[in-house]
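Why do we care about 3D structure at all? Because function follows from shape, and shape follows, mostly, from sequence. That is the central idea of this module. The next example makes it concrete: a single protein chain, its amino acid sequence, and then its structure expressed as C-alpha cells.
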Amino acid sequence: MRNKHHRALSVDDDRNLEIQVWLIPVNDLHDESNELDLLSEVGSLESYGNRYKSGVIVSILLSLDKNYTRFMQYCSAQAGWMAFRSILYRGKQPYFRLEFLDTSMELEPAKGSYGFYDWMDAVSANAMIRNDEGVKELCLVEQEILGTYFDEPFRRVNNIYFEFFKVFYSDETDPQIRAEALNSVRAIGELGTINAIVEREIENRVHSLYTPLVDIIEAIWQGNHESVERTVLEAMDKNYHYFAYLVPEKGQPNGEKSLDLGDVDAMFYDKIIALLAVYFEQTGKTMSFDSPYLPEWIIKNEGPTIQEVLANPPIFDLEHVLGNQ
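And the structure:
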C-alpha cells in the first residue's frame, strides 16, 4: 500500500502557485455552472460533476480548508444527481425540477442519455455526503434509459453491474436478492467472458475498477471486517495498476511515470470511499490503516456539514484560500 499519494506535493513545489493554478478552472467552472442554459443541456450536468470532482481531489492534495472540499463535493454530487433527474422522468412528466446552488427551476426532460460509469460517479458522490434523497432517487433509474448510445452487448455487461450496485445502494436486505445480483456479476467475471460478449477489450477496465468494488460489497454483506479491509487494499492496488500499467499505450511511460495517473479516477478513489462511508454508517467501523487515497474525515462525515458550507460558501480567491489555512 502506498503511504503517500502519487500526486502529493513535494518539498520543492510552490504551494501558493499550485493554489493559483487550481483556482483558474474552479472559478471558470463556477461561473459556467451559474448559466442556466448550460445547465439545462444534456451532458453538461454530468460534465460539471466530474470537473468539480477534480477540484475536490486537488483541494485535498493541497490541504485546503475543508470548507472548499465540502463545497465542491456538494456541487459534484448535486450535478450528478440532477443529470439523472433530467432523464429519469422523460416520457412520464413534462418537466423536471433542476436544483443547483441558488438555482431552482422547471425544465423539459433532456434528450440524450447517461451511462453506467456516470451513474457510479453520481451515486458515489451523493453517498459520500450522505445525501440519502439523492441516492434514493438515483436508485430509481432503470437500465432501459441508461447508456442508450452504446451497443446492446456493451449495455448488457454494464447493466449487470448496474443492477448489482443498485441493490447495494438501495439498502436491500433480502439475502436472495443480494445473492442473485452477486451471482449475475460473478457469472460474467470469468476471464475472457466480457470481451467475448462485447467483442472488444473492456475487461481490464471493468475488472480493475468495478469488480474489486463487488468484492468489497460481498465482504460487507458477509459482515467480515477483515475481508472488507483486504478487499479495499486489493481494490486500491488494482486501481493504481490499471492507470499505471494497463492504460498507457505501447511506447508511452508507465509505472509511476504514467501520464494516466493524472486521471481523476486514478487520483480520487471516490467509489471505494463511498462504499466505506455506507459501511461506516451501518457498522461504525473504519479501516485499521491510513491512506491518503481514503480521507477518513470524508468516510466518517466529519468536518463542516453541507448545510453549514452552503449557508456561508467559501470564497475562491488566493487571499481567502490562504487566509483559511
